[in-house]
Each structure stands twice: as C-alpha cells, then as structure tokens.
Design brief:
The complex is a heterotrimer of chains A (272), B (322) and C (294). Chain A is α/β, with parallel strands linked by helices. Chain A is built from 10 helices and 11 strands. The longest helix of chain A has 16 residues. In chain C, a hairpin with a 4-residue loop joins strand 1 and strand 2. The chains are: A alpha/beta (272), B mainly alpha (322), C mainly alpha (294).
C-alpha cells in the first residue's frame, strides 16, 4: 500500500512540476503543415547530421497550428502551405509577435488517375465538375464508360485547401468523395482503383499512377516556376521576427543549394 | 460477526462476478490502538476508489467544456440533423447526421455478423465442445480480443479491402461492408465471452431436467439453456455493439471516409470516431472545428452511455432466478 | 456441462436438425479462430522478412522509409508501463475497497456505475479528454506523461475488474482464520487476502498492459508523434509508438508503397509484443486454476 501511495504522490508531484515542454532542452521545434512536413523532415535529418549538437523536434498539425505555434511561441518554426491570414496577424500583433514568412519551396498539385485510364487531359472546368459530382462517368470527358471514383484529401489538409481555392473556386467538393489523410494514401488508392481520380503533390508521382495534363499543360517544375501550370502555390516557414542563431542557420540551410536539392527529393519544387 | 451479501449482477469488464463468495467479515475484533490505523486504511482506500468517479466526472466536464461552445455558432438541431460536414470551408457547415448515420450503419451491420457468430461460438464453447477443445479455443478467442485495433484495421486495408473490390467488382474496397466485417471481429470476443459466462451460469439441473424429459441436446440448448441465459446474452450483445460504435482505428482505416448517409452496402462512410481521429490533429486549437469535434465526441459518448444503460437494465430485468 | 454427441446419436428429423445446428455452432467457432490465425499468419508471412536485429535496434532513417523502429518500441513500452504505474495502484486499491470493505450502499453503487461507464467510454473519447485535460489544462503538452495517463485511466476498469475477480477467489475461510487468530482487518487484507490474490491480480494487470500497448486512438493527440529524432529522456518528451507508427506508415506516410515491408514488420512486432503478454497471462492463469483445483 505504501508503495502505491508513493507512486500516486510521485505523479502528483510530476503534475505540479509540469512546465512548458520546451523550457527543458535546447532544441529547435518545428510544427505545422503536413505538406511541408516531408521537406522539414528531410532538411532536419540532414541538418542534424551537419550540426550534431542541435536537436530538432518535428510535428504536423496543419498550417493553422503551425502559424499558431509561432504566435504562441511554442515552436521556433511554423510550417504553412498558405500565407498568414489577417485574423492571425492581428492575434500575433496583440501578443507582440512578428511572424516573418520565408518562402522555401513551391508546391505543384497534379490530378492523377489509374494507368489504364485513357483520359490524359482535363480542363479546369472538367476537374471542378468531377469534384462537384456533376460529371460522374469517365465517358463524359472522353474516357471509357466507367464510374468516376472521386478521392480527396482530408478537409484539414493544406493540399485540400489549395485544391479548393485553385480548382473548386470555393465551391464544395462532393461529400461522396473518399478521403485519404495523405498524398501517399491517395497514390495507393488510385493505383488499385480503376476509375479513381485524385490530386497529389508532384513529388509523389510514380509509375503506378498516371498524371493528367491540366488545360493541356503538364505539371512540372518548369511549368510551375514559369507560372503556366494553374494548380501551384508557394510553401512557407514562419518565424517569430527575423530569425537569429540556430533558427537562422536552419532557414539558411533550406535556402542553400543543398537544402533546395532536399526540397526536390521530398517531392516539392525547389525555388531555383 | 456480520455478513454482507455481495452485490450481484454488476457489470465488470473482463468477465464478471459469478464467484459469489457469500460473505465477508466487515468488523474486526481487535481494539488496542489499531482502530485509528483501520480507519486510515479504509478511508484512504475509499478516497482512491473515488478516483473512478472523479475521472468519469472530469471526462464529462471536459467534453462539455470543449464541446458546448459549438452551440454558440451552430444550433443543436442543425448540428445533429445537418447533412453537410464541411468543417474547414468558409463558411463552414457542421452537420454530423452523416457521421451519426455512418456510425449507426456500421454498428448495425457489424452486429448482423458478430451477434450470430459470437453467440453461436459461445454456445459451442459452453455446451458442445469437449472440455479439452474448449480449453484451447477459449484462449484463442481471448487473443482475438487482444489484437490491437490498428492491426485489424491495417489487415482490413491491405488484405480484405482489395479482396472485396475484386470479388464484388466495386469501385473501392474501403466501404461500409468491409468496415463492418472488420468491426465484427472486434466485437465477437466481447459477445462470445460474456454470452459464454451467461450460458455457464445456467444450472446443470435445467439441462438434466430437459434431457430427462426426452429433449435432444439441441432442443435443450434452444428451448432451455439459451432462454435461461437470455439476459446475459442480451447484455453481451449490447456491450458488443457499444464496443463497435466506439471503435476508432478500424473505421478510420477501412471505412472510406466519405461523410455521406450510406445508401448501399458498398458506399464509403465516415463514422464519428473516424472523423474525430483524422481531423483533431489539424483542427486549430479551440477553433470552431475543434469544438465541433468535441461535440461529436459528446454525441458518441452519449451513444455508448445509452448502450451501457440498456445493458445494465437488460441484466437487471431478466436476471435468472436460480 | 457438455453434450457428447456419440452418446446421443439421434435419428430422424430431430437428429438432422440437431446435426445441422451443431455444425453451424462448430463452424462459427472455427471461423473466429481461423480469423485470428489468418491475421497473425498474414503478418508473419509478410513481415518476417523485415525483421532483423537492425530493424529492432535502429532509429528510422531517410524520412522513415528505411532503418528501424527502436523509438517506437521504447515509446510503446514506456507508455504502457506508465499507464500501469497509474492504473495498478489505483485499480487494486479500488478493488480491495469494493471487495473487502464496502458494504452495499449508494457510495458503492456510484463507484460501480462510474467503473462500468468508464469501461464503455470509446477510446477516441479518452484521447479527446487527454488532450483537453492532461495536455491543455495540466499543461503537460503532447508528452509521454499525457499519453501514459490517458492510457492509464483507460486501463483502470480492466485492472479493477481483474483484481476484484482475483480477490473473490480467495476463500472466505482464509479471512476468518486470520481474524480468528487476532489479526486486524488491515493485517488480514495485506498479509492474507492480497498475497493469495496476487497472481490473479498480476495476470489481469499483464492483460491491461497488453491492451494499453496496442491502443492508438488515446495517444494520437496526447503522446505519440509522427517522428522524433531521439529516444525519450524525460516524461515530458513526445514519443513514437508502435500502433501509431503503423497507422502513420500505412496511411499518412510519404512513401506508402515502398514502406510496406516496414509496416508489416512493425505490425508483427506489435502483435508479438501484445500477444506475448497475453499468452503469458493466459498460461499463468490456467496454471493457477489447475493449482486451485487441487
């Protein structure tokens, strides 16, 4: 019995001692968008090899939480697949925080289908109609007579947000769409589902799936950088004020040649 | 020495309390300064026992605290009966009817599989199987119960869903039907174990009387043993369904995730736990979406409480008078 | 009581009905057992090739597409043990109170009502509670401690149930003998009753430990993270955990196709861990039963 009381007491003590998790160790905390997560992970791994004294902790949570973490100063770097909103900026100012955006990469989102699908090009309007479920059969867009299986990302993902903004023009993706929590999940689904259509980040393309051209333009690093491909957007890392010390060296590393190579490896489009 | 009767028929997870030991001494004969020690011991045990109540209270409190703000931006009626779940749109729609229907449909269909299978297995184990066989099979059923839900979900995703897709020639294997099958295997152990306990608690004399009157073993099972154990079996079924409606990983991984009211067996669905689990990680902290997910949690919790109350009243109402 | 078929061979319609139904009963049992073996066998066949010493002892590498799962194994063990550290003392004390002290009454009824309902709370709701209470209000953040406490309150009803069961199997004569020899109630409970119930209590706790190790939903928002580069050094660190790792690799990973072997391997390790604990508990229990029978 004494022992059990001891354990209880210990836990109570732990409760009381609990303080901010970041106060204990010197480390770089990165949080936010799952679209930026693979980039951040690649960069962090390489960075920690080069700077063994630095410990980087990495978590997802979405763009909103990334920016919020910077505002609340619970993270040094907040990843976001969108720019900061006015509401968030006001909150930051109220807390005396100045979020500074760093454009670290570009994201190009390509519609993909099963490799057996004969369709190879869709217009923006057709894409929108498919995701509105006003087009429900592949024959309506020049393909075989097969039901379209619409697959989308979870509504909290940054990619979904971009798709909604750029393709759906704020109209709603049909509720009948299957949802997957990640790019990888979409690839697996499309590869095993004949009538499927989904949208993924360019870097996730492989030979199990087929990329579609949009308005006749093939999604690639080149068409994204020159602005011709319609479904692309910049990715950001936010810091509190101009970065200094460890954070500065981390941001510099991403923007370096080596860092941008890693961006490409992670499936996004490097800035140069 | 006073004796007390042990509380009977309460539901404790992991089997239950048939071993009624009848009596326990409640007072002591010793005096001599131990009285204070006794009092301290009993009081501290009581205080620790109250932790369960406190925890349940805290769960309720925090669900309400984080969930109720939802109703400042959406009415209860629009929340429960709304068809559209677009939590991140501007303006958002927070209607969880499709999620509720998803949960109910997957629970019902999985029960259609799990109830016969679980109860029949229980009958086999308690009435038919040779003791040696039962001794091997029972642990197997328990091991089935201990398979982590994420493993069952994963198995459903990589093995069962593609199989379904091929067999039924359907657009996707991630749907209501596949989820129901996987979920059934999660509730079968619950149904089976509790039903078996109930069947075993039917006095042997009932069976002997029935057999002596010329009934076949099957007639004895179907007309005597099972009816006599009905309260326990009902409890088992309700608890099995309660487990199914609250199960998260399986529906998250194999149900497809479309927030629609299913119209066919092969429609994808998005039950409440799946929605909470997949969206909570990215919902802005204490934003509308965050609160709405807590409110969904309250709804889910109410369902399981309802199941629990039904189970308790079932076990009380038809309690076997032996 | 079981019916022996050979001695009750029946002819005619009644016999046919019976053999059809008995075949169905037997079939149902067989399907359930087969399902268990199908899942295990599938994971063994698919996952065995991924398992080697390096897989078990290395950190994940290259965005978790290579390397091992050491942090997940450590994380899961820490989470489960942490859960037990909370649930075991509280659960056993509650069971002792309910079984040895409490008379029937409103208070006991309320405690039992709470336990029953706690047992029915969906795992994801525990996760929500952990997030709102441990992570936010107690400011523990996403940490090993938050995750372990969340799992701990979830295991509480299991441990209480198992401990009560064990306490009930202690014959009343033990208590009477001890009291008769002049021991106080407290002495009786801690020198006589609890020691003889201990194996049963431990069995139940191992089962609870296994269950805690396999849970995903309660730790998703409270303790487990996608990736952390080092092993936990304090209870305030975030951890990786086997169940969440499977989920992440299988659905939210960046290279799902390529990491299939890792997924199967991780699932196999988790199954081995959980089933191993359960088998231990089952073996211990059946030994105890046999011993008690004599």
């Amino acid at each position: 019995m004494k022992k059990s009381m001891g354990v209880t007491a210990l836990f109570t003590a732990l409760f009381l001692m609990a303080s901010s998790p970041w106060a204990m160790a010197e480390r770089l905390a990165i949080k936010g968008s799952t679209t930026v997560l693979p980039i951040a992970q690649k960069i962090s791994e390489a960075y920690m090899v080069a700077h063994p004294e630095t410990k980087i902790s990495l978590s997802g949570g979405g763009s909103g939480n990334g920016i919020k973490a910077v505002i609340d100063q619970t993270a040094n770097v907040g990843n976001s697949s969108r720019f900061i909103k006015g509401k968030e900026m006001k909150m930051a100012v109220a807390k005396g925080v100045t979020p500074v955006p760093h454009r670290i990469a570009l994201d190009c989102i390509v519609p993909v289908v099963h490799p057996d699908n004969t369709v190879s090009n869709l217009t923006m309007t057709q894409l929108k109609d498919i995701y509105l479920a006003t087009i429900t059969n592949w024959k309506e867009v020049g393909g075989a007579d097969k039901k379209i299986v619409v697959i989308s990302r979870d509504s909290s993902s940054g990619t979904f947000d971009a798709w909604r903004g750029l393709v759906m023009k704020k109209e709603r993706v049909t509720p009948r769409a299957l949802t997957q929590p990640s790019n990888g999940g979409l690839v697996t689904q499309v590869a095993t589902t004949q009538g499927a259509i989904a949208y993924i980040a360019l870097g996730y393309l492989n030979d199990e799936i087929k990329a579609l051209r949009v308005d006749g333009i093939k999604g690639s690093a080149e068409t994204t950088l020159n602005g011709r491909y319609p479904i692309s957007r910049p990715l950001f890392m936010f810091t509190n004020g101009w970065p200094t010390g460890e954070t500065l060296s981390f941001i510099n590393f991403i923007l370096s040649k080596k860092g941008q190579e890693l961006v490409e490896e992670a499936g996004s489009i490097p800035l140069y | 020495m006073t004796y007390r009767e042990h509380t009977k028929g309460e539901m404790i997870p992991e089997g239950s309390s048939r071993g009624d030991r009848g009596a326990a001494p409640t007072d002591t004969l010793t005096g001599r300064g131990t009285a204070l020690g006794e009092w301290v011991a009993e009081s501290s045990l009581l205080i620790i026992s109250l932790i369960s109540i406190v925890v349940l209270g805290l769960i309720l409190l925090f669900l309400l605290m984080e969930g109720l703000p939802t109703f400042s931006f959406v009415s209860v009626k629009a929340f429960i009966l709304g068809h559209l779940w677009y939590p991140t749109d501007e303006p958002p729609d927070f209607g969880i009817l499709a999620l509720i229907m998803g949960s109910i449909s997957v629970t019902l269909i999985s029960s259609l599989i799990a109830v016969p299978s679980g109860v029949m297995t229980a009958i086999y184990l308690s009435e038919i199987a040779p003791p040696k066989m039962a001794e091997i099979l029972k642990p197997a059923i328990e091991l089935l119960a201990s398979l982590p839900s994420v493993v069952i979900g994963f198995f459903g995703m990589v093995a069962v869903a593609p199989l379904m897709q091929r067999i039924f020639d359907i657009p996707t294997g991630l749907n209501l039907f596949t989820a129901s099958i996987m979920l059934a295997f999660m509730s079968i152990p619950t149904i089976c174990t509790i039903s078996e306990d109930a069947l075993r608690s039917v006095p042997v004399t009932y069976r002997e009387a029935s057999m002596a009157l010329g009934a076949t073993p099957f007639e004895t099972i179907s007309k005597v043993t099972v009816p006599a154990a009905l309260s326990g079996i009902t409890t088992a079924i309700i608890l099995g369904m309660s487990r199914a409606i609250g199960e998260t990983m399986v529906v998250l991984m194999v149900a497809g995730g479309a927030a629609i009211i299913p119209g066919s067996l092969f429609d994808p669905i998005r039950p409440m736990p799946a929605s909470i689990a997949s969206e909570m990680g990215e919902a802005p902290f204490r934003g509308d979406h965050y609160h709405a997910l807590f409110a969904t949690g309250i709804t889910l919790f109410l369902f399981t409480i309802l199941f629990n109350i039904l189970a308790m009243s079932a076990s009380r109402r038809f309690r076997l008078k032996g | 009581m079981t019916f022996s078929l050979s001695k009750n061979r029946l002819s005619g319609k009644r016999g046919t009905v019976q053999s059809i139904w008995f075949a169905l009963f037997r079939g149902a049992a067989a399907i359930n057992v087969l399902a268990l073996f199908a899942v295990i066998l599938f994971m063994v066949i698919q996952g065995a090739s991924a398992i080697n010493w390096a897989f078990l002892t290395e950190m994940p590498k290259n965005s978790m597409t290579e390397g091992g799962i050491l942090p997940c194994i450590i994380g899961t063990i820490c989470l489960a043990l942490g859960a037990l550290a909370f649930a075991f003392p509280v659960g056993v004390a509650t069971a002792i109170y309910l079984n040895e002290y409490a008379t029937q009454g409103k208070r006991v009824a309320m405690i039992r009502f709470a336990i029953t309902n706690l047992a029915g709370v969906p795992s994801v709701v525990f996760g929500l509670f952990g997030l709102a209470f441990f992570c936010t209000v107690l400011k523990l953040g996403v940490s090993l401690l938050s995750g372990a406490l969340t799992l701990g309150i979830m295991s509480l009803p299991v441990i209480i149930g198992a401990s009560e069961e064990a306490l009930k199997t202690v014959p009343n004569t033990y208590r009477e003998a001890s009291l008769g020899l002049g021991a106080s109630k407290w002495q009786t409970i801690f020198r006589v009753v609890v020691p003889s119930a201990l194996p049963g209590i431990l069995t139940g706790s191992i089962l609870a430990l296994g269950r805690a190790a396999g849970e995903t939903a309660p730790i998703m928002f409270t303790g487990a993270v996608f990736f952390t580069p080092d092993l936990p050094t304090s209870v305030f660190d975030e951890v990786m955990a086997l169940p969440y790792h499977i989920y992440v690799l299988a659905t939210a990973g960046t290279h799902i196709g390529e990491t299939r072997p890792l997924q199967y391997g991780t699932a196999l390790v988790l199954i081995a861990l959980v089933l191993g604990m359960n088998l231990c508990a089952i073996i211990v229990r059946s030994r105890l039963r046999n011993r008690n029978r004599i």
